[in-house]
Amino acid sequence: MKKILVPTDFSEHAYNALKVASQIAKKNGGEIILLHMLELPHQGSDAVGSGHALPEIMLFKNSAIKKLEDLMDDECLDGLQVSEVIQFELAFDGIMKVSEKNGVDLIVMGSHGASGFKEMFIGSNAEKVVRNSEVPVLIIKKESGEFNVDSFVFASDFTDEIKKPFSKVVDFANKFGAELQLVMINTPSSFKPTHISEEIVSDFISNFKVDNYSINVYNDVNVENGILNFANYKNADLIGVCTHGRKGISHFFNGSISEDLVNHSKRPVVTFKI
Q: From CA 184, how far away is CA 40, in angstroms rounded?
């Protein structure tokens, strides 16, 4: 976690994410890339062509530059190497491009979630980033003060496809000195006896060097509820999941547990791409 990307729209949620990112960077000798995407009104493209909207565009840009410079002077960034980027682009597209171009290790974003019609048909930028990012994405929902991770709940089915991203999960837990609470969620539609579930998790974890962990099985009506309820039961500091990054029609019909958690969890969520 040496290079951390923090997108900002200068909102309270984005500032909460920046404070968490700064703490992670300080603990790991990392640097922060502070990104603001300048999304102009749709009619701006025609106006730009005629030259009529240029003063308005420059006003938007100068205002963003001033806000970004003020943010870079914030005390939470004291002692850190921080670079700033402003781009004229849709937020999601810009985040993906800047992340890839700069070899980012972690994206930290603030989110207030989405619900109802917006969740189904539009989704938040955080949700889109979680779905598509090749690097881990940490979603911060609220002011957390000191960001400590003592209890890290990681939920999975613990199949072979999880082994590759799980090495990043272990690294993340070790960097925070967290206890890794491994949990398999049993649901009515996919039920296994507890001893079978525990054996699956035990066989999986034997492939990794993890000093501080526990194996858990939790029964609930569906996977999302199971993760949220188990995290509440354990008073977890962080929830971690892997995501397939489904797109198109597959994503619409199958959904994504990670995106649901980003929308509905009140706790921080970190996702790892399979």
A: 44
